Input
Amino acid sequence: MKRRQQGILTGMPFMAHVSSRSFVDDAGRKMYLAKTPARIVSLAPSVTEMLFAIGAGEQLVGVTDFCDYPPEVSTKPKLGYANPNLESLMALQPDLVLAPQEFLKPDVILKLEQLKVPVFILSATTVEDILGHLQTLGRMLDRSVQANAIAMTLRQDVAAVRLRTQKVSPVRVLYVLNSQPLITVGPGSFIDQLLRIAGGTNVAAQSQLPYPRLSLEVVLQQDPEVLLFPIGKAEGIPDSEQQTWRQWQTMTAVRRGRLHQIPADLLNRPGPRIGQALTMLVNILHPEIAAGPSSQP
Output
C-alpha cells in the first residue's frame, strides 16, 4: 500500500497564519490543516451533499451506502454506514474523513485516529449549525465563496419563512420518525427547529431528548392536527404503517385527513437542501399561505 500523504496535523498548531487553517469540530477536537485536503471520505449523506454543493465533489473519494444525492455520487466507492469497512476506507488513502457524531460507532473514530487518519466530527442540532458546517467546509477546502453564498441564501430563505409564519396560528404536529417503537423529534434537534420555523407546534416540545420515544397515550392527549411521515428508498415509514394511524378517529389530524408525507432525505439530512424542506413544511402546515410571495419554486 502506498504511504498516505502527510500534511495534516492534529493538535495545537504552531505555524504562522494558523488561525485561518485551524478548526475545531463538534466534539471539541482541534485540527490544523497544513494544506487543502485532496482525498476526502464522507461518512454522512448530509456531508456528501454539502461537498457537492460547494463544488468539492471531485475531492470526494468515498461515501456511505446511503449517499444518493446528487446523482453524481453514484460513481463514488461505498464504504457502509454506521460501521464502515475500514480496510476499504484506508485503501482510498484519505487525507480527511468527515464523520457524523450520531450513528457512527465510537470505536470507528478511535480506530481511524489510531491509523493516523484525520477525522473531523460534524453534528448539527440547529439550523445555524448546518449553515456553519457549510462555511467551515468552505474554509477547509478553499471553497468559501461558494459556501458563503449558499449559507447566505439559506439564511435569507429561513428569514423569509419566519416573516410569513409569524402571524399564523401554530399547528400541532407529530413527526413520526419511527413507528415501532414510536420515535419523534424533540428540542435539541434541527428538525424540531424547522417545524417551529414553519409555523408548527411540536407535540413533543416538552421532551428532554432530541429524539424521544412517545407513548400513544401521550400522542392522543396532545392531539396533533397534522401527522407527518418521512418517505424514501433508504428510510421512511411504510405506507402500511402510515395507514394504521387512521384507526384513531378522535385525533384531529385523522378526523381532518391531515396525514402528510415528506421526503426523508430533505428533512432528515442537515444539509444544503433544508430550504426545500422548510418550504414543504410550510405548504403542509399552512396551505393558506403556501402561495405567498416568499415561497420557493
